[in-house]
Amino acid sequence: MSKKIFLCAISNISSGHCLEDCKFCTQSVKYGASIERFYHKPIEKIVKEAEAARERFAVGFCLVTAGKGLDDKTLRFVCEAAEAVKKEVPELNIIACNGTASLEQLRALKNSGVGSYNHNLETSENFYPQICSTHTWKERYETCENVKNAGLNLCTGGIFGLGESLEDRESMLNSIASLEPASVPLNFYHPNEALPLKDKTLPIEEALEMIRLARAILPNQRIMIAGGREITFGERDSEIFAAGANAIVIGDYLTTSGSDPMRDHRMIEEAGYEIAKECNEH
Ligand code: SF4
């Protein structure tokens, strides 16, 4: 039986007004990147996107809000969006990605139909102060622990290509492993002229090596290649699966365009893999 590849889609439901200063992120207001900024995407539009994602074989649908964490108003909005999606497209596993979150807030999300919570460690604990000064890595780790304590599936990963060392990469992957997440999104830095980080896209061989390293450290997790796939791997992106990935994000990312999902379906099938139709398949 061929290896199954899981597809996940993301919806940026509140964009571009974050007061934090993560140097790789165009959603920080501090850098003035030229992106679309809005507070609340209309619920009907979110549901339409979820329906379209399912038609394109996504098994997961991620509701992302920019910002450090959840406040009461954002929590209500995400819960409302999750309930609406669950009602219309019950087959989708809903992932919420809303920054720092308390146990109580995470339980509220779970009660609204959210199945997983995404909160990335981003990089190693040591390197983190060099990419963000407005909150700590520890705080991120604690939110990941809260996710598990709330009974949600944890989705935590990071981003490569911020100028971190190999030691930092190994450290981040080991920290992720210590949390025993269900899935691990790996992002590759997508340079933007407005951002203070002037690093370039990682060379493809180095990026593939990072996927191999992640698979060696995380043998049982779903490893998902997320932002930066197109710009890093180009037409060689089917090689990510032989390197150890078994999931990708389809469609657009938060502030950058992704490739056509139909093209991704072809790419997966031509490389000899099968697209998973349900989230809990093996
Ligand atoms: S907290 Fe999240 S949205 Fe805000 S700048 Fe950092 S990565 Fe971007």
Give the topology.
Elements: E1 4-14, H1 43-55, E2 60-65, H2 72-88, E3 93-97, H3 103-111, E4 114-118, H4 128-131, H5 137-149, E5 153-155, E6 158-160, H6 166-178, E7 183-188, H7 204-217, E8 222-225, H8 229-233, H9 239-243, E9 247-250, H10 261-270, E10 274-275
Parallel strand pairs: 1-2, 1-9, 1-10, 2-3, 3-4, 4-5, 6-7, 7-8, 8-9
Helix pairs in contact: 1-2, 2-3, 6-7
The structure holds iron/sulfur cluster (SF4).
Iron/sulfur cluster binds at residues 18, 20, 22, 25, 27-28, 66, 68, 99.
Helix and strand pattern = EHEHEHEHHEEHEHEHHEHE
Please give the CATH class. Alpha Beta
Would you count the extended β strands for me?
A: 10
What oligomeric state is this? Answer: single chain
- What's the structural domain tally? 1
Largest sheet report: 10 strands, parallel
Give the low-confidence spans. Answer: none
Shape: globular
CATH topology: TIM Barrel
What proportion strand? 15-25%
CATH homolog superfamily: Aldolase class I
Count of helix runs? 10
Q: What is the correct CATH architecture?
A: Alpha-Beta Barrel
Rg over CA atoms, rounded to whole Å, is 17 Å
Q: Which structural class should the secondary elements be placed in?
A: alpha/beta
Q: What is the mean predicted local confidence, pLDDT?
A: 95
Q: Can you list the ligands bound to this structure?
A: iron/sulfur cluster
Structural summary, described in words:
With 282 residues, the chain is of the alpha/beta class. It has a single domain (4-275), classed as Aldolase class I (TIM Barrel), CATH 3.20.20. Helix content is 37%, strand content 17%. Strands 1, 2, 3, 4, 5, 6, 7, 8, 9 and 10 form a ten-stranded parallel β-sheet that branches. Helix 3 links the parallel strand 3 and strand 4. Helix 1 (43-55) packs across helix 2 (72-88) and helix 6 packs parallel to helix 7. It starts with a strand and ends in a 7-residue tail after the last strand. 47% of the residues are buried. The model has no long low-confidence stretch (mean pLDDT 95). Iron/sulfur cluster binds at residues 18, 20, 22, 25, 27-28, 66, 68, 99.
